[in-house]
Design a protein that fits this description.
elongated; 301 residues; three-stranded antiparallel β-sheet; alpha/beta; 8 helices; 12 strands; single chain
Protein backbone atom coordinates (compact mmCIF):
# COMPACT_ATOMS: atom_id res chain seq x y z
CA UNK A 1 0.00 0.00 0.00
CA UNK A 2 1.42 3.40 -1.03
CA UNK A 3 2.05 5.92 1.69
CA UNK A 4 0.88 9.48 0.96
CA UNK A 5 3.33 12.36 0.95
CA UNK A 6 1.62 13.90 4.00
CA UNK A 7 2.09 10.71 6.01
CA UNK A 8 5.74 10.49 4.94
CA UNK A 9 6.26 14.10 6.00
CA UNK A 10 4.85 13.33 9.46
CA UNK A 11 7.17 10.33 9.70
CA UNK A 12 10.18 12.49 8.77
CA UNK A 13 9.20 15.07 11.39
CA UNK A 14 8.97 12.33 14.04
CA UNK A 15 12.38 11.03 12.97
CA UNK A 16 13.77 14.56 13.25
CA UNK A 17 12.42 15.00 16.78
CA UNK A 18 13.84 11.62 17.79
CA UNK A 19 17.26 12.60 16.44
CA UNK A 20 17.18 15.90 18.33
CA UNK A 21 16.26 14.11 21.56
CA UNK A 22 19.05 11.58 20.99
CA UNK A 23 21.59 14.34 20.40
CA UNK A 24 20.43 16.06 23.58
CA UNK A 25 21.20 12.89 25.50
CA UNK A 26 24.55 12.40 23.77
CA UNK A 27 25.70 15.95 24.49
CA UNK A 28 24.98 16.09 28.24
CA UNK A 29 26.02 14.27 31.40
CA UNK A 30 25.38 14.37 35.14
CA UNK A 31 29.07 14.24 36.10
CA UNK A 32 29.81 16.74 38.88
CA UNK A 33 31.63 19.89 37.69
CA UNK A 34 31.58 18.74 34.06
CA UNK A 35 31.30 21.42 31.40
CA UNK A 36 28.78 19.11 29.66
CA UNK A 37 26.52 18.98 32.73
CA UNK A 38 23.58 21.41 32.43
CA UNK A 39 22.18 20.59 35.86
CA UNK A 40 22.81 22.59 39.04
CA UNK A 41 26.17 20.90 39.80
CA UNK A 42 27.63 21.28 36.29
CA UNK A 43 29.68 24.14 34.86
CA UNK A 44 28.01 24.57 31.46
CA UNK A 45 26.94 28.13 32.28
CA UNK A 46 30.45 29.21 33.20
CA UNK A 47 31.77 27.84 29.92
CA UNK A 48 29.09 29.82 28.08
CA UNK A 49 30.34 32.95 29.84
CA UNK A 50 33.91 32.01 28.97
CA UNK A 51 32.96 31.72 25.31
CA UNK A 52 31.11 35.04 25.40
CA UNK A 53 34.30 36.69 26.69
CA UNK A 54 36.41 34.95 24.01
CA UNK A 55 38.17 32.86 26.63
CA UNK A 56 40.33 29.93 25.66
CA UNK A 57 40.41 26.28 26.69
CA UNK A 58 43.72 24.56 27.41
CA UNK A 59 43.44 20.78 26.81
CA UNK A 60 47.13 19.84 27.02
CA UNK A 61 50.52 20.96 28.37
CA UNK A 62 51.61 21.65 24.78
CA UNK A 63 48.77 24.12 24.24
CA UNK A 64 49.48 25.83 27.57
CA UNK A 65 53.06 26.57 26.51
CA UNK A 66 51.81 28.68 23.61
CA UNK A 67 48.48 29.97 24.89
CA UNK A 68 47.88 33.72 24.61
CA UNK A 69 46.27 34.31 27.99
CA UNK A 70 46.92 36.29 31.15
CA UNK A 71 44.95 34.14 33.61
CA UNK A 72 44.55 30.37 33.86
CA UNK A 73 41.71 28.94 35.95
CA UNK A 74 42.02 25.41 37.37
CA UNK A 75 38.81 24.01 38.91
CA UNK A 76 38.98 21.05 41.29
CA UNK A 77 42.25 19.54 40.01
CA UNK A 78 42.30 15.77 39.65
CA UNK A 79 45.36 13.53 39.76
CA UNK A 80 47.63 12.39 38.24
CA UNK A 81 49.81 15.45 37.66
CA UNK A 82 52.50 14.57 35.16
CA UNK A 83 55.92 16.20 35.20
CA UNK A 84 55.09 17.73 31.82
CA UNK A 85 51.90 19.28 33.20
CA UNK A 86 53.62 20.74 36.26
CA UNK A 87 56.40 22.15 34.06
CA UNK A 88 53.77 23.77 31.80
CA UNK A 89 52.04 25.42 34.79
CA UNK A 90 55.36 26.67 36.14
CA UNK A 91 56.27 27.96 32.70
CA UNK A 92 52.99 29.91 32.53
CA UNK A 93 53.78 31.49 35.89
CA UNK A 94 57.36 32.27 34.87
CA UNK A 95 56.00 34.28 31.92
CA UNK A 96 54.20 36.51 34.41
CA UNK A 97 50.86 34.75 34.22
CA UNK A 98 48.26 34.34 36.95
CA UNK A 99 46.92 30.94 37.98
CA UNK A 100 43.75 30.62 40.03
CA UNK A 101 43.23 27.22 41.66
CA UNK A 102 39.75 26.67 43.09
CA UNK A 103 39.21 23.44 44.95
CA UNK A 104 38.63 21.75 48.27
CA UNK A 105 39.73 18.17 47.57
CA UNK A 106 42.99 16.55 48.71
CA UNK A 107 44.39 16.67 45.17
CA UNK A 108 44.45 20.48 45.37
CA UNK A 109 47.18 20.40 48.02
CA UNK A 110 49.20 17.88 46.06
CA UNK A 111 49.09 20.13 43.01
CA UNK A 112 50.13 23.13 45.11
CA UNK A 113 53.04 21.18 46.56
CA UNK A 114 54.15 20.07 43.09
CA UNK A 115 54.12 23.69 41.91
CA UNK A 116 56.31 24.76 44.83
CA UNK A 117 53.52 26.78 46.45
CA UNK A 118 53.28 27.33 50.20
CA UNK A 119 49.49 27.81 50.08
CA UNK A 120 47.28 24.96 51.29
CA UNK A 121 43.65 24.01 51.87
CA UNK A 122 42.50 22.93 55.35
CA UNK A 123 40.45 19.95 56.47
CA UNK A 124 36.82 20.48 57.39
CA UNK A 125 33.99 22.29 55.66
CA UNK A 126 33.60 25.92 56.72
CA UNK A 127 30.32 26.83 58.38
CA UNK A 128 29.03 30.14 59.63
CA UNK A 129 26.16 31.94 61.27
CA UNK A 130 26.67 34.63 58.60
CA UNK A 131 25.36 32.87 55.48
CA UNK A 132 23.92 33.52 52.04
CA UNK A 133 21.19 30.89 52.47
CA UNK A 134 19.42 29.28 55.40
CA UNK A 135 22.17 26.71 55.90
CA UNK A 136 25.47 27.08 57.76
CA UNK A 137 27.29 25.54 54.75
CA UNK A 138 26.96 28.72 52.65
CA UNK A 139 29.17 31.21 54.52
CA UNK A 140 29.72 34.73 53.24
CA UNK A 141 33.32 35.78 52.62
CA UNK A 142 34.45 39.39 52.91
CA UNK A 143 37.35 41.25 51.33
CA UNK A 144 40.11 42.24 53.69
CA UNK A 145 41.38 45.84 53.51
CA UNK A 146 44.15 45.55 50.91
CA UNK A 147 45.15 47.79 48.04
CA UNK A 148 44.44 45.35 45.24
CA UNK A 149 43.31 41.81 44.53
CA UNK A 150 41.51 39.92 41.84
CA UNK A 151 37.96 41.13 41.37
CA UNK A 152 38.05 43.23 44.52
CA UNK A 153 34.57 41.91 45.29
CA UNK A 154 33.31 43.21 48.60
CA UNK A 155 31.85 39.84 49.46
CA UNK A 156 30.99 36.42 48.02
CA UNK A 157 28.54 33.63 48.89
CA UNK A 158 30.30 30.27 49.08
CA UNK A 159 29.07 26.67 48.91
CA UNK A 160 30.63 24.20 51.34
CA UNK A 161 34.08 25.80 51.12
CA UNK A 162 37.22 24.91 53.03
CA UNK A 163 39.63 27.27 54.74
CA UNK A 164 42.96 28.02 53.11
CA UNK A 165 46.35 29.30 54.18
CA UNK A 166 48.77 31.40 52.19
CA UNK A 167 51.15 34.36 52.29
CA UNK A 168 48.48 37.04 51.67
CA UNK A 169 44.81 36.84 52.61
CA UNK A 170 42.41 38.40 50.11
CA UNK A 171 39.01 37.27 51.44
CA UNK A 172 37.89 35.63 54.67
CA UNK A 173 34.74 34.61 56.50
CA UNK A 174 33.20 36.60 59.33
CA UNK A 175 34.15 36.03 62.95
CA UNK A 176 31.07 33.80 63.43
CA UNK A 177 32.55 30.87 61.47
CA UNK A 178 34.06 27.47 62.26
CA UNK A 179 35.66 24.43 60.60
CA UNK A 180 32.99 21.74 60.81
CA UNK A 181 35.26 18.75 61.32
CA UNK A 182 32.40 16.29 61.90
CA UNK A 183 30.23 17.74 59.09
CA UNK A 184 27.11 18.08 61.24
CA UNK A 185 26.55 21.80 60.66
CA UNK A 186 26.88 22.61 64.37
CA UNK A 187 29.70 23.85 66.56
CA UNK A 188 31.21 20.91 68.43
CA UNK A 189 34.19 20.02 70.53
CA UNK A 190 37.50 21.10 69.05
CA UNK A 191 35.79 23.48 66.58
CA UNK A 192 36.85 27.09 67.06
CA UNK A 193 34.77 30.14 66.14
CA UNK A 194 36.94 32.65 64.27
CA UNK A 195 37.58 34.15 60.84
CA UNK A 196 38.97 31.81 58.17
CA UNK A 197 40.72 32.83 54.94
CA UNK A 198 39.05 31.44 51.80
CA UNK A 199 41.08 33.27 49.13
CA UNK A 200 44.83 33.82 49.37
CA UNK A 201 47.54 35.03 47.03
CA UNK A 202 51.25 34.46 46.62
CA UNK A 203 54.01 35.38 44.20
CA UNK A 204 55.37 32.26 42.55
CA UNK A 205 57.87 31.69 39.70
CA UNK A 206 57.63 35.33 38.58
CA UNK A 207 53.83 35.07 38.40
CA UNK A 208 50.89 35.14 40.78
CA UNK A 209 48.95 32.24 42.25
CA UNK A 210 45.53 32.51 43.89
CA UNK A 211 44.01 29.72 45.95
CA UNK A 212 40.23 29.69 46.49
CA UNK A 213 38.80 27.08 48.84
CA UNK A 214 35.60 26.61 46.84
CA UNK A 215 35.54 25.04 43.38
CA UNK A 216 31.74 24.92 43.41
CA UNK A 217 31.62 28.72 43.21
CA UNK A 218 31.56 28.18 39.43
CA UNK A 219 28.76 25.60 39.17
CA UNK A 220 25.45 26.44 37.49
CA UNK A 221 23.56 26.57 40.77
CA UNK A 222 25.88 29.30 42.08
CA UNK A 223 25.53 31.36 38.90
CA UNK A 224 21.80 31.86 39.37
CA UNK A 225 19.69 34.13 41.57
CA UNK A 226 21.23 36.42 44.13
CA UNK A 227 24.46 34.40 44.31
CA UNK A 228 25.16 35.40 40.69
CA UNK A 229 24.85 39.05 41.67
CA UNK A 230 26.97 38.62 44.81
CA UNK A 231 29.75 36.68 43.07
CA UNK A 232 29.50 38.36 39.69
CA UNK A 233 32.29 40.89 40.28
CA UNK A 234 34.80 38.19 41.19
CA UNK A 235 33.88 35.95 38.25
CA UNK A 236 33.68 38.94 35.93
CA UNK A 237 37.23 39.92 36.84
CA UNK A 238 38.47 36.45 35.90
CA UNK A 239 36.73 36.68 32.52
CA UNK A 240 38.13 40.10 31.71
CA UNK A 241 41.29 40.44 29.67
CA UNK A 242 42.60 37.16 28.27
CA UNK A 243 41.29 34.24 30.39
CA UNK A 244 41.97 30.56 29.78
CA UNK A 245 40.30 27.52 31.31
CA UNK A 246 42.42 24.52 32.22
CA UNK A 247 41.15 21.28 30.74
CA UNK A 248 44.25 19.24 31.59
CA UNK A 249 43.52 18.30 35.20
CA UNK A 250 40.29 20.19 36.01
CA UNK A 251 37.18 18.11 36.74
CA UNK A 252 35.35 20.26 34.19
CA UNK A 253 36.97 18.29 31.35
CA UNK A 254 35.15 15.05 32.16
CA UNK A 255 32.64 13.70 29.66
CA UNK A 256 31.12 10.36 28.70
CA UNK A 257 31.26 8.68 25.32
CA UNK A 258 31.00 11.05 22.36
CA UNK A 259 30.75 14.23 24.44
CA UNK A 260 34.27 15.49 23.60
CA UNK A 261 33.58 14.94 19.88
CA UNK A 262 30.32 16.88 20.03
CA UNK A 263 32.06 19.64 21.99
CA UNK A 264 34.71 19.86 19.27
CA UNK A 265 32.03 20.11 16.59
CA UNK A 266 30.17 22.77 18.55
CA UNK A 267 33.27 24.89 19.13
CA UNK A 268 34.75 24.58 15.61
CA UNK A 269 33.12 26.54 12.79
CA UNK A 270 34.36 24.31 9.96
CA UNK A 271 33.28 21.17 11.80
CA UNK A 272 29.78 22.60 12.35
CA UNK A 273 29.47 23.57 8.67
CA UNK A 274 30.66 20.13 7.58
CA UNK A 275 28.11 18.40 9.84
CA UNK A 276 25.25 20.61 8.60
CA UNK A 277 26.26 20.05 4.96
CA UNK A 278 26.44 16.27 5.36
CA UNK A 279 23.08 16.21 7.14
CA UNK A 280 21.37 18.30 4.47
CA UNK A 281 22.86 16.27 1.61
CA UNK A 282 21.96 12.96 3.26
CA UNK A 283 18.38 14.09 3.88
CA UNK A 284 18.03 15.35 0.31
CA UNK A 285 19.43 12.09 -1.04
CA UNK A 286 17.05 9.95 1.01
CA UNK A 287 14.11 12.10 -0.01
CA UNK A 288 15.14 11.86 -3.70
CA UNK A 289 15.49 8.09 -3.48
CA UNK A 290 12.06 7.78 -1.90
CA UNK A 291 10.41 10.02 -4.50
CA UNK A 292 12.15 8.20 -7.37
CA UNK A 293 10.97 4.85 -6.03
CA UNK A 294 7.41 6.06 -5.63
CA UNK A 295 7.39 7.41 -9.18
CA UNK A 296 8.71 4.08 -10.45
CA UNK A 297 5.93 2.23 -8.64
CA UNK A 298 3.31 4.55 -10.14
CA UNK A 299 4.72 4.10 -13.67
CA UNK A 300 4.73 0.31 -13.21
CA UNK A 301 1.14 0.41 -12.11
Amino acid sequence: MAVSKKVRMVIYVIYGIAIVMLLAQLTSTNLEMSRYNYEWNGTSRFFELLEEHHGLEVPSPESLRSVQADTLLILEPEEPFSDETIAAYQGFLSRGGTIIIAGERDATNRLLESLGSSSRTLKGTLCSVDTGYSTPFTPIAYRVPIEDGIGMADRMILNRPVGVTGPEVIMETSLLSWRDLDDDGRIGGGETIQTYPVLVRESLHNGTLYLLGDGSLFINGMLEGHTAAENGKFIGAILEGRPAMDQIVSLTRRGDGLLPLFAFIKSTYMAKMALVSVTVLLTAFLWWRREARDEGEEDGA
